[in-house]
Design brief:
Blueprint lengths: L1 E2 L3 E4 L7 E4 L2 E5 L8 H12 L3 E4 L6 H11 L3 E6 L4 H13 L9 E5 L9 H10 L3 E4 L4 H21 L5
Parallel strand pairs: 4-5, 4-6, 6-7, 7-8
Antiparallel strand pairs: 1-5, 2-3
């Protein structure tokens, strides 16, 4: 498990310096998926957007994902899969994540090769969304689509931090 942590210190010039926690992204693949380069790429990408990233690595058991969501309550969960079993494993995992009260409103996305037959029909993608994913990025979806989604999430999280009394 790779963990990157940092505290950003904010100094407005008119008072004491106050530590502010950066948003945390939990990055994982699924139990049946042993791919790792996708996780390395996504970790670097998320860090570039300002997230502290907890990368659970390949072949992550459902229970570890749930345990880390309970323990960390991440601001974002990114599930990446390349083995073609993303729909089956992803449906099982999202139900468990959404059963955690603190995770009910956190953004959770899934992307990659979700099925062995290539891109999934719209009703399959809709099933993933209906089950609790906030966004689904199917095989071949442009990275720009994922980036647009992340930029909206980051902006929303910064506004929430700002309204909660932090500066961001």
């Amino acid at each position: 498990m790779t963990t990157t942590r940092s505290i950003v210190r904010i100094d407005s010039g008119d008072g004491p310096t106050v530590p502010r926690r950066r948003a945390t992204a939990l990055l994982t693949t699924l139990q049946s998926d042993s791919h790792t380069w996708n996780l390395v790429f996504l970790q670097i990408h998320l860090e570039g957007l300002g997230y502290d990233v907890v990368n659970l690595g390949p072949c992550v058991p459902d229970e570890l994902i749930v345990q880390e969501c309970r323990r960390r309550v991440p601001d974002l969960v990114v599930v990446s899969t390349l083995n073609g079993h993303g729909v089956t494993d992803g449906l099982r995992v999202i139900r468990r994540i959404r059963s955690i009260p603190a995770m009910s409103d956190k953004p959770v996305v899934i992307g990659g090769k979700l099925g062995v037959g290539g891109r999934q029909p719209l009703h399959v993608v809709a099933k993933l969304v209906d089950s609790g994913y906030d966004a689904v990025f199917d095989d071949g979806a442009p990275m720009a689509e994922f980036d647009r989604y992340l930029h909206r999430v980051v902006a929303r999280q910064r506004r929430a931090l700002s309204s909660a009394g932090g500066t961001g």
